[in-house]
TrEMBL record:
Major place of residence: nucleus
Keywords: Activator, Coiled coil, Nucleus, Signal, Transcription, Transcription regulation
Source organism per UniProt: Wolfiporia cocos (strain MD-104) (Brown rot fungus)
Taxonomic lineage: Eukaryota, Fungi, Dikarya, Basidiomycota, Agaricomycotina
Protein name per Swiss-Prot or TrEMBL: Mediator of RNA polymerase II transcription subunit 9
Function: Component of the Mediator complex, a coactivator involved in the regulated transcription of nearly all RNA polymerase II-dependent genes. Mediator functions as a bridge to convey information from gene-specific regulatory proteins to the basal RNA polymerase II transcription machinery. Mediator is recruited to promoters by direct interactions with regulatory proteins and serves as a scaffold for the assembly of a functional preinitiation complex with RNA polymerase II and the general transcription factors.
Localization annotation: Nucleus
InterPro entries (UniProt xref): Med9
Cleaved signal peptide residues: 1-24
Transmembrane domains' residue ranges: none
Length: 113
């Protein structure tokens, strides 16, 4: 998948190099090479667009993606706060449990033998 995107820039560079070469001597071979390179680039670009549109969220605009990211960051922060609260509650419960064990032992009447 990423190879499609990675191949775009080298293909564009080929077109630019061929175009610069044709400025000096526009031969039929150079023109044909430009046409072939352009068609290859166009096809690769079509494939890249297709891949991008099939990605989850690929149909969203940049602004919509930013909104989703912001919403997910808020959700993450809210979950982090809930986890901190839960952790504090568990700690206070476990501390209270230890104190009850000590209290219940201390208040148990001694048995005489």
């Amino acid at each position: 998948m990423s190879s499609v995107f990675e191949s775009l820039l080298p293909k564009l560079l080929v077109i630019l190099e061929l175009t610069q070469q044709s400025e000096n001597a526009a031969t039929p071979q150079t023109k044909q090479a430009i046409v072939q390179a352009t068609n290859d680039f166009r096809e690769t670009l079509r494939q890249a667009k297709e891949v991008a549109s099939t990605l989850p969220g690929g149909e969203l605009s940049v602004e919509e993606q930013d909104e989703v990211i912001e919403m997910l960051e808020k959700l993450k922060e809210r979950k982090r706060q809930q986890l901190l609260e839960f952790s504090a509650n568990v700690h206070s419960i476990s501390t209270a449990g230890v104190l009850m064990d000590v209290d219940s032992t201390a208040s148990t009447p001694a048995t005489s033998s």
